[in-house]
Amino acid sequence: MNTPNLAGIGMTSQRTRERMIASLLEKGIKNWAVLDVMRTTPRHIFLDEALSHRAYEDTSLPIGYSQTISQPFVVARMTEAVLGNRSPEQGKLPRVLEIGTGCGYQTAVIAQLAERVWTVERIQPLLEKARRNLSLLSVRNVRSKHDDGSLGWPEHGPFDAIIAAAAPQQVPPDLLSQLADGGRLVIPVGSERGGQELLLIVREGENFHRQVLEAVNFVPLYLGQVQY
Ligand code: SAH
Q: I need a surface site. Which of 54, 150, 175, 187 has the fewest CB within 10 A?
C-alpha cells in the first residue's frame, strides 16, 4: 500500500490544507492526482513544532542544517512535470529517483504516485529525520541512502523520472545517463546569485529535450562532499 496511514495524526489541519490546495489551483497546478495527494499528505509532521503552524503556507521553511523544505507550489510543479501527460490507465510511475531527500515531504508526495522511489541525501541527520517521517506515514515503497546524489543511484536505474531538490551549476551527466528512454528529469540549475531555472529534460533515445519551467530559488547541490 502506498497510501499514507493518517491514523493518530489528526485531521485538524484539513481545513488549512484545503486552503493550500485552493492556492495551488489558483497558481496554475492542474494535475488532479498531484492535488489529491497533497490534499491528504500532512506537511506539518515534516516540520519542527515551532514552525508546524506555518506548514500549509505556500512557502519554503527551514528544516535545519541550512536546508529548507520546498515550497508546496514547487513540489506540485515538479511532481506535475515528471508525471507529464500520464493517464490514470498507465498507472503509477514505475521507478523514480529523488536527489535531496531533506525532510522527506517531496518523497512522500511522489511515493504515492510511483511504484518505487529511491532517494539520496548528503546530510545524514536529515536523512534520518526523513526516514522517521516516512515511517510515521507508513510510506513503504522508498529506499534511501546517505551519499552524493549527483552520481544518481546507478544500480537501480534507469529511472522513469528523476527529481532533484537542490541546484547544481550544470545538469550532472550521471543523472542524464540514468534516465530511461521517455524518462523525465526535473532539476533546478544555476547559482543562488545568478538566478536559477527549473528545467524539464525529456529523454528520447540519445536526445535530451530541455524546457524551462520557472525561475526558482533552491539551495545549492554540492558535488562530491558528503557531510556528517
Ligand atoms: N525536497 C526536500 C528539499 C530539501 S532541500 C524537502 O522538501 O525537504 C535540498 C536537499 O538537497 C538538502 O537536504 C541538501 O542537503 C540536499 N543536497 C544538496 N546537495 C546534495 C547532493 N549532492 N546529494 C544529495 N543531496 C544533496
A: 54
- Mind listing the pLDDT tens digit for each residue in 166-200? 999 999 999 999 999 999 999 999 987 789 999 99
pTM, to two decimals: 0.94
Report if residue 96 sits inside a domain: yes
- List, in order, residues 6 or more apart from 140 with CB less than 8 Å away: 1, 2
- What's the 118 CA to ligand 1 centre distance in angstroms? 14
Structural domain span for residue 34: 14-216
User: Are 196 and 190 a contacting pair, CB within 8 Å?
Assistant: yes
Beta carbons of 168 and 178 less than 8 angstroms apart: no
How many domains are contained in the chain? Answer: 1
In a domain, 126, yes or no: yes
Q: Is residue 144 part of a domain?
A: yes
Nearest CA residue ID for atom 2, ligand 1: 102
Pocket test for ligand 1, best of 47, 63, 67, 196 (most atoms within 8 A of CB): 67
What is the CATH classification number for the domain harbouring 94? 3.40.50.150
Which of the four pLDDT bands, split at 50, 70 and 90, describes residue 8?
very low
